[in-house]
Design a protein that fits this description.
The chain is of the alpha+beta class and about 270 residues long. About 45% of the residues lie in helices and about 15% in strands. It contains 9 helices and 9 strands. The chain has helices at about 20-35, 80-85, 100-110, 115, 130-140, 155-160, 190-200, 215-225, 235-274; strands at about 65-70, 75, 90-95, 120-125, 145-150, 160-165, 165-170, 170-175, 180-185. It is globular and about 135 Å long.
């Protein structure tokens, strides 16, 4: 009897390696292109950590930067502010209300408020301060514009002015009615105002420093040193105390000289009478 043997099944062929999805390839290509051209992928709410607005970009104002609050505790958005403006919005950012450098910056925008808004732009200050702090700041400095409060820094981050980990970079951001970014740069108090002056075509004729600006400039220097870690708050206070004591000593010395002159004059008078 012949025994029939079963043939061995043909060895199964190894599965072909999966091909990369077209979307992944497209994404990688897009990232490479963006890196080469400098283009940024800007999300509507500005949440992307790598996104940074640049002059010439057109942003989607719907939801951009999230919701902020005015110093009068009114909720608003950048889109609402732009819609309410005639030509667009100017946002100048500052680290802390009522500090020397921020006071200088706010007062410069105050002093140039009329010419800077003549072409239809609306000006707003923007910081992470509370409505109470910003209201005090606005009232004390007699500011003619609204201050925006962004404690979570969503709008500040969206316009590229957030400083890690929780700070705010001093700067200026300008956007027109169509969402086109006209200015977006960091700078000192005077530099931020100058950006807007050039944008709206304001000449330098008649421009002058505000009252007390010299003292503010000196305060701004101390503030900058504190921010950069060159001086801590205690050293700044000691410096201010030392300056005050020096001025008092100078006043006392001047008073002593005046007293000596008076005594000498009195003795001369007595000699003449004798």
């Amino acid at each position: 009897m012949v025994e029939l043997r079963k043939r061995k099944a043909a060895a199964e062929t190894a599965p072909a390696p999966p091909t990369k999805k077209a979307s992944s390839v497209k994404s990688a290509t897009s990232k490479t292109k963006a890196a080469a051209t400098g283009e940024q992928d800007i999300s509507a709410n500005g949440a992307s950590s790598s996104a940074k607005v640049a002059v010439g970009n057109t942003i989607d104002l719907e939801g951009f930067g999230g919701e902020v609050e005015t110093n009068d505790s009114v909720k608003t958005t950048l889109k609402t502010l732009v819609d309410e403006s005639k030509a667009g919005v100017v946002l100048f950012t500052y680290p802390k209300a009522s500090t020397p450098g921020c006071t200088t910056q706010a007062c410069l925008f105050r002093d140039d408020f009329t010419p800077l808004t003549a072409t239809g732009f609306s000006i707003y200050g923007l910081s992470t301060d509370s409505p109470k702090s910003n209201t005090t700041f606005k009232t004390k400095q007699n500011l003619p514009y609204t201050l925006l409060c962004d404690p979570s820094a969503t709008l500040i981050h969206a316009i590229g002015m957030k400083k890690a980990p929780k700070g705010t970079t001093r700067g200026v951001f300008v956007v027109d009615k169509e969402g086109k970014v006209l200015a977006a740069e960091a700078g000192g108090p005077a530099a931020t105002v100058e950006v807007v002056r050039k944008l709206v075509g304001v000449s330098d004729a008649g421009a002058g420093p505000s009252e007390g600006m010299g003292d503010m400039a000196e305060g701004s220097k101390v503030e900058k040193e504190i921010e950069e870690g060159k001086m801590d708050a205690q050293e700044a206070e000691q410096s201010a105390t030392a300056n005050g004591e020096s001025e008092q000593k100078e006043d006392a010395a001047a008073a002593d000289v005046a007293a000596d002159v008076a005594d000498t004059a009195e003795k001369l008078d007595e000699g003449v009478q004798a």
